[in-house]
Amino acid sequence: MNAFSLDAHAALVTGSSQGIGHAIALGLRDAGARVVFHGLSEKSAELGAALPADAPYLACDLLPATGPETLLAAAFAAEPALDTLVCNAGSFFDLPLLEMTRERWQKTLDLNVTATFFLVQGFVRRLAAAARPGCIVITSSTNGFQAEADSSAYDASKGALVMLTRSLAVSLAPLGIRVNGIAPGLIRTPLTHTWLETRADDLVKHYEKKILLGTVGTPADCAGAVVFLCSPAARYLTGEIIVIDGGLTIAQIGRM
Amino acid sequence: MLPPTPPPFDLSHRDLWIIGGAGYLGRAVVTLLASMQARVLCADLDDRAHRMVADAGLPPNVTPATLDANDTAAVERFVTEHCAARGVPHGLAVMTYSSTGKRLDDLTPEDFDRANHGNLTGTFVLARAVSQRMAARGSGSVVLFSSMYGTVSPDPGAYEAPMNPNPIEYGVGKAGIQQMTRYFAVHFGPRAVRCNAISPGPFPTVATQQAHPEFIQRLAKKVPLGRIGQSSEIAGVVAFLLSDAASYINGQNLAVDGGWTSW
């Protein structure tokens, strides 16, 4: 047995048109899984070029209450043997605290937390009906336990995902479904790129001092941990969250 | 264009040292790493590693060695000699532990010191000696072994006389390993040496499983997955943390406990 092989497994990775989700989806395929990709936008020529030619891609907005069920129905139609779900879709809608709106607060929680819970619920209902064991991975963030200024909604939503991961693990263990998470630190993605590059102060240099391994992470740095969590090597892991931050959150003060 | 594929789990031809490699969990780790074509140095007390390699018919890419990790002078010699002979390893896993097995009321100060010398001082001297050499080269991955009992206390109700509860000095030392891991990660991280910990949940040995079936049932009830762990379920986690697939993971403690510490 190859401890890290995902042969004969099939996964849905939400938010896999770009960034961390994209690297996770490619990593799962590399390990042998069949993978259904998902994103917010319809498939463009540019997006098509970034996806493997033979992989199904589903466009679906997860914000509306019907979003999770719509996506799951399409995903199981495309790949009936799904047994792995990576809840990775999420975003950042905060404004500076004094300008923050109720609409943006609600949107953050709806997408990052509520859609994740109902994706898992719908996924598990289908697995339970088929008496099929499974594996779920939830992307939270180091923002789930270390705060950042003007990120209240994002921080709170990621903190909720940290606890949701444990809570789901406890509830779903009797069904043979493991639930684990990854908590990426600062990773260079389309979501963080603009933010990093448009700051007047030299934020990247600041982070490179604070990150012990010396560099901002790449999406591919997150893929290995998800492959591991979905693989036979992690059969006895549930309720666990792997922090992938190059050491960003363990030191009090970085190098000066 | 597709971005580069994620870093691999490949450990072939990596030099990996597994200290405490002939124990119940160590044996599974060494066996998996050997099957992944790593060059494994398996060290344990007396002739335990030599006997395991012979009895299990492990392939020639596993080299047995003798080390008492309590003996800090022997540890320094061991690291110097084996680095000279084999080169500085790519990965190190320290799977040793000390425990008196005594009840809290019976524990003497000397017992407590002796166990923690093994759990903390021995691990420190060994991991430091190897990490310093890895740092001088500019790469390496170190895995230290903590325990769920370094995070939560044993439930005395799971243990019934004449069995003693898992003793205090064991968990205290294993809690120390979690902080040692973070300190090593911070100290050596800038020189690209990662350090992470694994906290196994309930992994009683086969002998304990056979001798105490009711105890095993009580443990299993405390695990969301409803069963104790099997030694092979630790092996893949060690392989992951030693591999490049974990290259951005540093200073973490991974619980492999079926969910024991989730509720």
Describe this structure in words.
The complex is a heterodimer of chains A (256) and B (263). Chain A has 256 residues and is an alpha/beta fold. Chain A has one domain (10-187, 219-244): NAD(P)-binding Rossmann-like Domain (Rossmann fold), CATH 3.40.50.720. Chain A has helices at 19-30, 45-50, 67-78, 102-129, 152-172, 190-197, 203-210, 220-230, and strands at residues 10-13, 34-39, 57-59, 84-87, 134-139, 177-184, 241-244. In chain A, strands 3-2-1-4-5-6-7 form a seven-stranded parallel sheet, sandwiched between helices. Chain B has a single domain, classed as NAD(P)-binding Rossmann-like Domain (Rossmann fold, 3-Layer(aba) Sandwich). In chain B, 42% of the residues lie in helices and 14% in strands. Chain B contains eight helices and seven strands. Chain B has helices spanning 24-35, 48-55, 72-86, 109-137, 168-188, 206-211, 213-221, 232-242, and strands spanning 15-19, 39-44, 62-66, 91-94, 140-145, 193-200, 253-256. In chain B, strands 3-2-1-4-5-6-7 form a seven-stranded parallel sheet, sandwiched between helices. In chain B, helix 1 (24-35) links the parallel strand 1 and strand 2 (39-44). In chain B, helix 1 (24-35) packs across helix 8. The mean pLDDT of chain B is 95. At the A-B interface, helix 1, helix 5, helix 8 and strand 7 of A face helix 5, helix 8 and strand 7 of B.
Which labels suit this protein?
heterodimer; A: alpha/beta; Rossmann fold; seven-stranded parallel beta sheet; 8 helices; globular; B: alpha/beta
